[in-house]
Amino acid sequence: MQTFNPVKEGKVREIYDIGENLIMVATDRISAFDVILKNKVTKKGAVLTQMSKFWFDLTKDIVNNHMVSVDTNDMPEFFRTEEFKGNSMLCKKLNMVPVECIVRGYITGSGWNSYKENGTVCGIKLPEGLKECDKLPEPIYTPSTKAEIGDHDENIDFDRSVEVLEKAFPGKGLEYATKIKDYTIALYKKCADYALTRGIIIADTKFEFGIDENGEVVLADEMLTPDSSRFWPVEGYEPGHGQPSFDKQFVRDYLKANPECDYNLPQDVIDKTIAKYLEAYKLLTGSELNV
Ligand SMILES: Nc1ncnc2c1ncn2[C@@H]1O[C@H](COP(=O)(O)OP(=O)(O)O)[C@@H](O)[C@H]1O
Ligand SMILES: [Mg+2]
Q: Any idea where the SAICAR synthetase/ADE2 N-terminal domain is (predicted)?
């Protein structure tokens, strides 16, 4: 049997290169405040992968995506084990666009900091008098470029994204920059409207796109998971201060209250967090996680 090693191990995900396709595995690792915790959150990886699958299916009329299958029977034999079941996605390998496509429907995080300073986010002027976590009149597209290791991602405006893409794909900069912007807004609107009916606010999120062998723009990476987005419960939403995170609030609260714990959490905090992931999955998709 052919064995495989990850070509990339991120904080939370592992990527395997199997030739024409990739296998993206979401592990049960969890990060908080940019640090990987010592504990594993059982089934978190499966929740994230199945959530991406749900969104890819829901939005395939807007843009093609890289998902081929989440069934390990469609993967090389090496992956047909419990370890990869439910948490692995077979994806078409793409030439990735070097821009992170961030869309914000609410003002929070780095967007809030920038707005407080000068009333704008990524060069976009926003109305005066917004409170922290207020809903924006319209979702805004605030791209960034992937930082070299060690650096922070750099926020850019649309014109700069055209330049970055022109450099990566000569002759195609404006076309690709426009397409990824329009897709980003359309995807966010459809999914955020849907999530709201299920009790979850998607405050902001990040999409990544790639280019396929025909030069077409294809949606890639993970999609609308709590790791790539801010999910807030609708219940209790109140602008004027930070909102609780749907999935990581127990973890963050514990870490803040117990700075000496060295990123080792008690089982009851982990159990409550597992329950939150399963709840988010059920709320959004309408079914229990079944993997
Ligand atoms: N279909 C795809 N083809 C090629 N690369 C992809 C595809 N989908 C996602 N990627 C890339 O796979 C990598 C996933 O790594 P990740 O664990 O998110 O770490 P990071 O985002 O820090 O690079 C990213 O570099 C992403 O751009
Ligand atoms: Mg990533």
A: 7-258
Q: Whole-model pTM?
A: 0.96
Cα angle: 234, vertex 240, 246; to 5 degrees: 35
Under a CB-based contact definition with an 8 Å cutoff, are residues 79 and 12 in contact? no
In angstroms, what is the span from residue 223 Cα to ligand 1's centroid? 12
- Contact at 8 Å (CB) between 120 and 154? no
What domains can you pick out in the chain, each with its CATH number? 8-93+250-284 (3.30.200.20), 96-209+224-233 (3.30.470.20)
| Residue to mutate, 208, 209, 211, ligand 1, most ligand atoms under 8 Å from C-beta | 208
Exposure string of 43-60, with b = 16+ CB inside 10 Å and e = fewer, is bbbbbbbbbbbbbbebbe
Separation between Cα atoms, residue 161 and residue 181, nearest integer Å: 10
What is the pLDDT confidence band of residue 287, given thresholds at 50, 70 and 90?
very high
> Could you give the CA distance from residue 280 to residue 273 in angstroms, rounded to a whole number?
11
Going by alpha carbons, the residue nearest to atom 19 of ligand 1 is 10
How far apart (Å, rounded) are the C-alpha atoms in residues 69 and 91? 7
Distance CA 4, CA 148 (A): 27
Percent of the chain with pLDDT over 90: 95
